[in-house]
Design goal:
Blueprint lengths: L7 H10 L3 H8 L3 H9 L8 H11 L3 H20 L2
């Protein structure tokens, strides 16, 4: 089984609202499986801006906040790949 680093900023935002992954997926208009892959990092560098906008709406946080957190997440992926 391949390990994917988790997007903790999404987990924290979702849990703060008391939402399940199913609820966020419903708010975003995507399947639970798709949202699960986003949150768990299986969709790593492929996240699209429209997905960030959907996340911002579903989690009730500004797009800029998610954008900044996603930049940090992507930087951590790059640091991890440098260790290989």
């Amino acid at each position: 089984m391949k390990y994917y680093p988790i997007r903790m900023y999404l987990v924290n935002a979702r849990q703060k609202l008391g939402f399940s992954q199913y609820r966020v997926a419903l708010e975003m208009g995507v399947s639970h499986q798709h949202y699960n892959r986003i949150e768990n990092g299986a969709i790593g560098e492929a996240i699209q801006f429209k997905t960030i906008v959907s996340l911002a709406y579903a989690l009730n946080i500004p797009v800029q906040v998610i954008w900044e957190e996603e930049e940090k997440y992507q930087a951590s992926l790059n640091m991890d790949s440098d260790d290989i």
